[in-house]
Fold this sequence. Notes:
With 277 residues, the chain is of the alpha/beta class. The chain is built from 13 helices and ten strands. Helix 1 packs parallel to helix 3 and helix 4 (118-125) packs across helix 5.
Amino acid sequence: MTNDAYSTLRVSSEHGVARIVLDNPPVNALGTAMMRELRTVLTGLEEDSSVRVIVFSSADPEFFIAHVDMHIGEEMEVLQELAASAPADVNVFQAIGELIRHQPQVTIVKLAGKARGGGAEFVAAADMAFAAVETAGLGQIEALMGIVPGGGGTQYLRDRVGRNRALEVILTADLFDAETAASYGWINRALPADELDAYVDRIARNIAALPDGVIEAAKYSLPADDFKEGLLREDDAWASTFSLPAAQHLISGGLQEGAQTPAGERDLEGLMRNVAR
C-alpha cells in the first residue's frame, strides 16, 4: 500500500495496524473517487493476514466525512461503473458500509470532527467508534435535503440504538454530540479530545497483538447481521425521495448557500433549515 496510489486517502501499516486517513478537502465529502479508493484498499486488506486492525481517521480535524458529495448526481457514468462492480442487492453507497462491516480485520473509527449523512453511516458500519467529547458530532442530515439515508444508515442505526432512537436521529436530522451518541450506543465511547489518539492507538495495538486466531474467533462468534431485506427497502425509499422535485430544490439550494464549504458545514442543519423556509 502506497500513498502515491490514492488521491483521497493516506494509507500506512505498522505492527498489524493499518491506518487509513481520509483526506479529501475542503470537507472530506464522500465522492466517487473516495468510494473507489476505499473499495480498492479494503478489498486488498481482506487478503492481508499481516493486518489485524484497521483504524480510520481524518486529515481534517473538523470533518471526518461531511456527507456524500452533493454533486455526485452529476457523475452518473462513474456511479454506474461503481454500481456494476458492487455486490448484488446493495447500492453504491451501501456497498461501502457493507465492505467495512464484513472486513476480517477489526475496524475502528477515530472521530475527532463531524460525520453527517454518509459519514455517519460510515461510523456506524465500523466495529467500534470512539469520539472526542469537545469536537465530534454525528447526524443523519438527509431529511433536511428531502431524502432518507441511503447508505445503510437506517439499518445500522436500528441495530445500534433501537427503532425509537433511529427514528429520532433520522427525522430530527439534528447533530448529536459525542456523549449523547455514546449514551445511545451509536458509538462505543466519548473521550476528551486530548486523550482520543492515545486511547485508540492503545486498543488498536493491543487487539493487533492478540494470539493467533482470537480475532477471527471473536468475529466468527459475533458476525455482522444480515440486513439484505432492510437494505433493499432503504434503497427503494432513498430512490423514491431523491427523484422528487423537493429533494433537488433543497440540495441545489444548499449548495448555493454554502454547503460543502467549511463555513457552511459548521452548521449545516441551520443552513438547510433556512433553505427549506
